[in-house]
Design brief:
The protein is mostly beta strands. The protein has a single domain (17-456), classed as YVTN repeat-like/Quinoprotein amine dehydrogenase (Methylamine Dehydrogenase, Chain H, 7 Propeller), CATH 2.130.10. The chain is built from six helices and 30 strands. The protein has helices at residues 17-23, 27-36, 85-88, 341-344, 378-394, 444-456, and strands at 49-54, 62-66, 69-73, 80-83, 97-100, 106-110, 113-117, 125-126, 136-141, 149-158, 161-169, 177-178, 187-195, 198-208, 214-220, 228-236, 240-246, 254-259, 265-269, 277-281, 288-291, 297-302, 306-311, 318-321, 327-330, 335-338, 348-351, 358-362, 367-370, 432-433. Strands 1-2-3-4-29 form a five-stranded mixed beta sheet. It has a five-stranded antiparallel beta sheet with strand order 25-26-27-28-30, with no helix packed on it. A four-stranded antiparallel beta sheet has the order 5-6-7-8, with no helix packed on it. Helix 2 (27-36) crosses helix 6 (444-456). The protein starts with 16 loop residues before the first helix and ends in an 18-residue tail after the last helix.
Length: 474
């Protein structure tokens, strides 16, 4: 299960007066500036965050999936480090689902299989056997026992047929076993989640049929031995279903986002998927969804809608913030959001008042360089040479020492480091983000990227887990 972020795995406040002045620059001038800057990222995508994963027992450890790699903090957001895409095993426009397990193992579901790190992101390896070279389209850690997890693979077989399977681990990803029977070959999976209060209950959302598609849930009450198809009214090839959450105490209550164009909807079932009620229709992309840990409140968000909250007892939504969340994650410690640096004033923000206000935990120029690892590690050998180009394109201040030049171009000169070094750019207690402008000191590179993003974000974002159809999908 993951936050319902469509873009970036695929949710803004209005600028303050000084920033509105910058916005008044003509489009031609902004594009001229942008033309002088490096490409937005190594894969040509505008730098943005799209998913936040939290360690199940250590709230100071967060992992953020961005369009330029994974971003890691071990101290609650005071210092952030970069993990490059190649060391994890993905690249291009791929936005993998990422999760922590109980012992700190980090999982990433990618096109080539399941990639995992047992040492904080320094080294990664693919699960072997039948999972190798299988597209892991989604994965979910068990909330009651995070040493356990489920994942779903869905690979194209041709002629509108797919190999779709549920896999599980109960030992922090040391071993994976296929759970039960394969799903029907005319079913393409999108998301998976297991009920926290009933481990035998698992839901997989996806679509049936070709060339006309019908959105549906596959539900099992015996951990995959048998499956029941439950069609979702109002879903088709233009409005596909993605699981948002299952109530922590009620396995029959499931929240599903219908990903449409140009608007989305949130629907809920209280009878295990037998019937659904529409509880929210967005004005635009519904990129953020979060259920409180106790299941009492739900929050949704997106660039056009801002952030809205409702008690699950009534599901009557009230707007509480203009932040256009691009992802939402709700833990016992706080509510976290992916933001737009240009519009919201942060890349990652934290709220301790259930979404009314956010403090900036990460700005795009606040990375401290590659993850600190042993010289012989995969991250050190792979990411160090790539950091210079990445730092240049995202406008990083390169604090924390020499970042290396890399093969993608010369690294920018180091900027003045914050007091105490260590890139403490979003320390707890920072000012709340209302309509705050991004912090000062941004150079031409930041403004150029912001301009490019403001003028080019019409690109369709990926779905809830941040990925497109499985290889071979029509």
């Amino acid at each position: 299960m993951h936050p319902l972020a469509k873009a970036t795995s695929r949710p803004r406040q209005r600028p303050s007066a000084p920033r509105r002045g910058r916005l008044a620059l003509s489009a031609a001038a902004l594009l001229s500036i942008a033309a002088l800057a490096a490409p937005a990222s190594a894969n040509g995508r505008f730098p943005a965050a799209g998913l936040i994963a939290s360690h199940p027992s250590d709230p100071s450890r967060l992992m953020v999936r961005a369009t330029y790699g994974l971003l890691s903090t071990h101290d609650g957001g005071e210092a952030w480090r970069w993990i490059c895409e190649p060391v994890v095993g993905f690249g291009g426009n791929e936005d993998p689902m990422v999760a922590f397990l109980a012992d700190g193992t980090i999982l990433a579901g990618v096109f080539d299989g399941l990639s995992a790190s047992k040492n904080g992101g320094c080294d990664w390896s693919f699960a072997q056997g039948e999972l190798l070279d299988r597209y892991v389209i989604d994965l979910s850690a068990d909330r009651e026992d995070p040493s356990r997890a489920v994942l779903v693979v869905s690979a194209g077989l041709g002629a509108g047929r797919f190999l779709t399977q549920l896999w599980e681990t109960d030992d922090n990803a040391d071993r994976w076993t296929k759970a039960g029977a394969d799903l029907p070959e005319d079913f393409l999976a999108h998301t998976v989640d297991a009920a926290p209060s009933n481990r035998d209950r698992v839901y997989v959302s996806g679509r049936f049929g070709s060339p006309e598609y019908t959105g549906a849930l596959q539900r099992t009450d015996d951990r995959g031995a048998t499956w029941e198809r439950l069609d979702i009214p109002g879903s088709d090839d233009m409005r596909l279903p993605y699981i948002g959450a299952i109530d922590p105490a009620d396995p029959d209550t499931i929240y599903v986002r219908l990903d449409g164009d140009p608007t989305d909807a949130l629907i809920v079932s209280h009878d295990g998927g037998e019937s659904f009620t529409t509880v929210f229709e967005s004005q635009g992309d519904l990129l953020g969804f979060a259920l409180s840990p106790d299941g009492a409140s739900v929050i949704v968000g997106g660039p056009q809608d801002g952030i809205l909250r409702a008690p699950t007892s009534s599901l009557e939504f009230e707007k509480i913030s203009d932040v256009g969340a691009r992802c939402l994650t709700w833990t016992a410690a706080a509510l976290f959001a992916c933001g737009d640096e240009f519009a919201d004033g942060f890349t990652v923000g934290r709220s301790v008042d259930e979404g009314k206000s956010f403090e900036a935990l990460l700005h795009r120029d606040g990375l401290c360089g590659p993850l600190e690892c042993a010289e012989e590690s995969g991250a050190a050998s792979t990411c160090t040479d790539l950091w210079g180009a990445t730092a240049l394109t995202i406008g990083s201040r390169q604090c924390g020492g020499d970042a290396g030049t890399g093969s993608g171009g010369s690294a920018p000169p180091p900027a003045e480091e914050p007091a105490g070094c260590g890139c403490k750019i979003g320390a707890p207690g920072a000012a709340s983000v209302g309509a705050a402008a991004p912090p000062g000191g941004r150079g031409v590179s930041w403004l150029a990227l912001s301009a490019a993003g403001a003028l080019a974000l019409a690109r369709r974002r990926a779905h809830a887990s941040g990925r497109g159809p499985a290889p071979g999908a029509p």
